[in-house]
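Model it.
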Amino acid sequence: MKLNPYVNFAGRCAEAFRYYEKHLGAKNTMLMTFGQAPDQTHIDPKMKDAVMHGRTVIAGEDLLGADIPNAEPMRSAYLTITVDSDAEAERIYAALADGGSVFMKMEPTFFAYRFGQLRDRFGVNWMIINPRPMQPPR
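Modeled.
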């Protein structure tokens, strides 16, 4: 069994996946447009360049997505990236925060050397963390 997040974008899926490829080292493995679907009888011509199904691999995990008219930004779910250096946490946070909305600035916490939360320019919520080693309960 495998669990994969599927994110709906309001017309910016390909742009988002290219951005993640550039800034997160993602590898885009599929971007099929509605115009590439074998049966065009039910396809709105205005959607021909929109992504029907996309897949990108980030840190070895698949992120799936599509362009869905009137898609709304994520609300209570986050994609989480765990890294092993403060510099990498800061770099990724800055890239995803560019043009987005910061919920929690990148900073040290009791559970992480660096932790931050944001919504990127594409409406996707992210948590970036460089965790501290967990201490066993006493």
